[in-house]
Amino acid sequence: MGYVSTPNFFNRNAPVQTVPRGDVLQSVDTYVEAQSIVNRLTQSGYPVANIAIVGRDLVTVERVLGRMTYAKVALKGALNGAWFGLFIGFLMGVTATGAETVYVPATMAIGAGLGMLFNLVIYSLRRKRHDFSSVQQVIASAYDIVVPNGTAEAARTALASAKKD
Question: Which residues form the General stress protein 17M-like domain (predicted)?
Fold first, then answer.
């Protein structure tokens, strides 16, 4: 599995985010292919510190998972609330002296009830606008592997000598 970096918003000395400039080593259709090329360059000993994978032509894709019903919303809320209740129960149970072990199931039940109620209220308010569940993602139609200016030929040579995944 690959590593995806995120910007550090707390570092005031971080460089300004700009689109990397340089020579395009290769363009591929998927991020996995781009990662594979950078991995092959790494394995060949090529210095990859200034290489960038740049996604082009970004689109937002929303994949519909299914229709939402009150039963599904209630169950999801109950499960989420129960997990939160379990966490709170364990925190309370750590400081307990024995008889208070009832905290865990009690907090799970309370969490499940509150989670169910909260989810049902939110769903009722949004139902006319959004009656289905979905996930959104941003996808690029192509990915460029960008190397510093003047180093593309050396990178191509290193890539040719590296074994394929």
Answer: 24-96
